[in-house]
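pinned: reference chain
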Amino acid sequence: MKNMNRKGSAGSLIALFLAAFLIAILLVLMLGILKVTDYDAGVPATVFAVINMVILAVVYGMGGQLGRALGVGGYAPIAGMTGVYTIAQFVYMALAFKTAKPLTYILVSMIILFVYCVIVLPIGLNGAKNKNR
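pinned: its structure tokens
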């Protein structure tokens, strides 16, 4: 039993490292190559990208712990919706960071994040409730 816990924690550490590496790559892309902060909506775009990356790090980096807490039926939809949220947020960023006004960018990004939370939180709560039965 102890051996499984070591493998699980090693897998979690590797996943967290990879998530942190992905965050670094995306931030270098945004800040260094695309120069997102040179535009009016650049700072909000960076903030929402960081929020997205933290969500990715938690959902995928701690997938083993979440999977044990929620069960497969709870974790799988959350992981899938996190992928959809990430794609939606980055597609919106790619389309709008140059032309959108900062408040408009913040509003649309908050709506995208709100929809993600409205979908994911009930799934997570239901999965945790069903797992504890």
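why pinned: Residues 2-131 form one domain. The chain is about 85% helix and 0% strand.
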